[in-house]
Amino acid sequence: MGRYETMFARNQGVFGAFVMLGDPDLETSAAILDELVQGGADMIEVGIPFSDPVADGPVIQAAAVRALAQGVRTADCFALIRGFRDRHPDVPVGILTYANLVLARGRDAFYQAAAASGADSVLVADVPLMEAEPWAASARAAGIAPVLIAAANTPAERLARIAALGEGYTYCVARAGVTGADAQVRFDHEAMLDALRAAGAPPPIFGFGISRPEHVRAALDAGAAGVISGSAIVDLVARGEPLGPFIESMKAATY
Fold first, then answer.
1. Based on CB atoms within 10 Å of each CB, which residue in 63, 69, 131, 186 is the most buried?
2. Residues involved in catalysis
3. CATH number given to 14-252
């Protein structure tokens, strides 16, 4: 089995942690990745700094700006992933990125470089489903799982297409809009989860707004296989605060 399959097989509920690579600098970023695993994160999702991250809210956008100001480039991010993979051979790593960064290197070349770095999946946030098939094919050819996004208002026929094209996990947005750390998140996604399950989709992971242990528990109780928290973690990084207590509390909510 691959890393995602192994992770889901051994976990009742998965906690994933997102950070922006290169924030606040490359050396600290490498240490942050280790801190996430030490705190109990089951999977890691990483962003590559980009000037126009349309799916991200102000906290993650600010992290991208900080990393870009340090001169961090895509090749540096692949090197960070490669180092992480050497230190943590069993932890799944997914890249969340945007089409411009992929196409700048060349789609096949990007996926091949991602695979060579040790990444497991790539989610290209701004590629619409109607255009996703060649991207998914290119990813699979390189040994990368193409991750697709589903939402509560996604029509059933599109959910079936997401199920057919996606691998690794299905990124399910917990709310409309961009990323952020919310006080309250509602998980009234029963129809979406039922449709994904019926279509044989990869396990559903909720993101967007996940910032408290009660969000984790609510998502799992609603039928998710796990969650990803991003803005809350990136905000801690920006403030220079330890990540361990937050990661531990979020992971504890999966039991």
1. 63
2. 45, 56
3. 3.20.20.70
